[in-house]
Design a protein that fits this description.
Number of strands: 11
Low-confidence stretches: none
Shape: globular
Strand content: over 45%
Oligomer: single chain
Length: 123
């Protein structure tokens, strides 16, 4: 079992930046892929970005590419989501997820989820 704890959410004006963190604990040796999803008023559990735990290959949602960047620090069992040029439509709860398999963009591919961190962007 992998436990995930997100942090870094908050309130930001449009155009600003935030960096989210997600710390993994427990059976981290079983992690293959980690990802960020978000839940907004209009879309339930939307894929944002993923990263292979070993190797670092990333996959980004096309609509967010260029503004959001995922990265990781294996030594700290942590992944990050750097969010730039934030827009009001980015408002939502951001979730970290981990998968023991080579996961795709579907939430069902992921075994473990954090509790989420709220991001609110004002216009």
């Amino acid at each position: 079992q992998v436990q995930l704890v997100e942090s870094g959410g908050g309130f930001m004006q449009a155009g600003g930046s935030l960096r989210l963190s997600c710390v993994a604990s427990g059976l981290t040796s079983t992690i293959n892929t980690m990802a960020w999803f978000r839940q907004t008023p209009s879309i339930a559990r939307e894929f944002v970005s993923s990263i292979r735990w070993y190797g670092g290959t990333t996959n980004d949602a096309a609509s967010l590419k260029g503004r959001f960047t995922i990265s990781k620090d294996n030594a700290k069992n942590t992944i990050y989501l750097q969010m730039n040029s934030l827009k009001p439509d980015d408002t939502g709860v951001y979730y970290c997820a981990a998968s023991s398999i080579l996961a795709n963009t579907r939430p069902a591919s992921f075994d473990s989820w954090g509790q989420g961190t709220q991001v609110t962007v004002s216009s």
